[in-house]
Design goal:
Blueprint (H helix, E strand, L loop, with lengths): L1 H42 L23 H12 L5 E5 L10 H5 L3 E6 L2 H10 L1 H5 L3 E5 L7 H7 L8 E4 L5 H7 L7 E5 L30 H11 L1 E6 L5 E6 H4 L40
Parallel strand pairs: 1-2, 1-4, 2-3, 4-5
Antiparallel strand pairs: 5-7, 6-7
């Protein structure tokens, strides 16, 4: 009798687990639909009707938000050289601004400071590492080692894409970087302080983000830095997390003429991030490009 009760209990538990999974899937789908409707309302603003603006091109493939689509459109407009990327602050590699490029046949380098995440990268992305398309380095990037790391990785001077997301010293690292001149740069900004405020976190090579607003730099500060380095701000994504820059010599006539960062600024909408839904877990190495 006790055995029969145990079997019934397991059957009921399995049924309950399946129903919970169904509710989770429904909840995820509803969250995605709500996010999609919100994004459509934001982009319905007539200011986004300018065909040179980039916000409507936003789309998620492997990025955290809609960065993949914006980067794709930028590269379509300015062209690429040898399809190379460099990104630091990639966590375990499954959700960042350059994985889509790697899947699309590009080559490049990732730097991550977490030993556990680097181990996961080396396991998951072993095929790309083995065939020489992906160089992975465990390191904490700062303004004193960024140029040394670039040289050690053998990166070409004219990278096609650079992505910086280290939750702190982003401004200082980009300011110090001078051995590469990427065609396009994606860099995290602090959206709490809108233009015209120019604010930069004090440099601290030991900084670890504590969840507060003390990180990175405001958009206006990054725009001014970009201008000094020969770059134009061309967009921000609607979650208010990343700014997109293009080298001045490549930007003419391809993007809005506005230079005021207020024209591109997006406020903090981190609550939208969960609505960019990954339909299935990220896999790698079980497929390839076809001609």
């Amino acid at each position: 009798m006790a055995g029969g009760d145990g079997d019934e209990w397991r059957r009921q538990f399995d049924l309950l687990a399946k129903r919970v999974q169904q509710l989770q899937r429904i909840g995820t789908q509803q969250l995605y639909l709500m996010g999609e409707a919100t994004r459509e309302r934001i982009l319905a603003d007539p200011r986004y009707d300018d065909p040179l603006r980039l916000e409507r091109h936003g789309a998620k493939v492997y990025s955290q938000n809609e960065e993949d689509g914006i980067v794709t459109e930028i590269l379509r407009r300015i062209g690429v050289t040898d399809r190379t990327f460099w990104e630091f602050g990639v966590q375990d590699g499954t959700e960042n601004n350059t994985l889509y490029r790697l899947v699309d046949g590009w080559r490049g380098a990732w730097i991550e400071g977490s030993p556990a995440d680097v181990t996961k990268i080396r396991e998951r992305f072993a095929p790309a590492i083995t065939d020489g398309r992906l160089n992975v380095r465990e390191a904490l990037v700062d303004r004193d080692n960024v140029n040394v790391l670039a040289a050690e990785l053998g990166l070409p001077r004219e990278l096609d894409l650079l992505s910086i997301d280290i939750d702190g010293n982003d401004f200082h690292v980009w300011e110090a970087l001078d051995v590469v001149t990427p065609r396009a740069v994606v860099i995290e900004y602090n959206p709490k302080l809108p233009p015209p405020t120019r604010w930069v976190m004090h440099y601290d090579p030991r900084h670890a983000w504590d969840g507060s607003d003390q990180y990175g730099a405001s958009l206006a500060a990054l725009a001014a830095l970009g201008a000094r380095k020969g770059y134009r701000l061309v967009a921000c994504n609607i979650t208010g997390s990343n700014a997109f820059f293009v080298r001045q010599d490549l930007a003419g006539g391809k993007f809005p003429a506005a230079t005021d960062p207020a024209y591109y600024y997006q406020p903090h909408r981190a609550w939208l991030t969960p609505t960019f839904w990954n339909v299935s877990p990220v896999g790698f190495g079980k497929g390839g490009l076809v001609s």
